[in-house]
Amino acid sequence: IRMALTKEQFSQGRSPQEYIDQMKVNKQPFTEIYQAVEIPGEVQTYFDNLNEPVNLAVFHAEWCGDAVSTTPVILRLAESTKNINVEVFNRDEVVDLTNTFLPAHRANTVPVFVVLDRDMREIARFIETAKGLVPRLDAMNETIASQVPDDGENARNVARGQRTAFRVAHAKEWGEVILREFQQVVTDGLALPGDKRPAEAGTEWPAPED
User: Fold this and answer.
1) 108 neighbors 130 (Cβ within 8 angstroms)
2) Is the separation of the CB atoms in 17 and 130 below 8 Å?
3) Residue 95 pLDDT more than 90?
4) What angle do CA 84, 48, 69 make, to 5 degrees?
5) How far lies 144's CA from each of 21, 124, 147, 149, 169, in Å?
6) Which pLDDT band, with edges at 50, 70 and 90, does 3 fall under?
7) Bridge partners for 96 per DSSP
8) I need a labelling partner for 207 at 20 to 30 A (CA). Which of 20, 52, 82, 136 fits?
9) Kind of pairing, strands 112-116 and 122-127?
10) What DSSP element (H or E) covers 167?
11) pTM summary value
């Protein structure tokens, strides 16, 4: 199996707190979502009882709405158990590396979560956010679009702010959806033989037809 990430590369990430401390964009909503998340008991139990710890590389972009929704949820889980060793990367500093975990037609998608075993072999990858959230994200966008006319940069900024507030307001509910899907992809990945890994989950985009 191709080594997805070397131990040296992995060690160059930041701890969640180091990463949050240096954030310039969306730090407050990110922190509010982190604090609002409640980890379902069975998700907590699953990770607490893994046979061996896993490594988790998180590729985050501060400006990305899906990252604001999803990254703090996964980091909260990682902080809650001894069995997830997490390193956080600013995607904009490691674009080429992040894109190695994405199909070509999804280059530059964020965030990306890569789960690896102790030998840095990939187990699972979770891309963008939970698939189960897509209908709720679509509904959010439709509601806000109906309230804010798209007539220039100011309107776009208002809509962006409303989406961020909506994500914070739904942090607990959405966080549960994200955590259950993340647990499932790790479960699936660990069940696969090495040559069939990684399991993949998250949002999906159709590949362009030739």
Assistant:
1) no
2) no
3) yes
4) 55
5) 30, 34, 5, 9, 14
6) low
7) none
8) 136
9) antiparallel
10) helix 153-169
11) 0.95
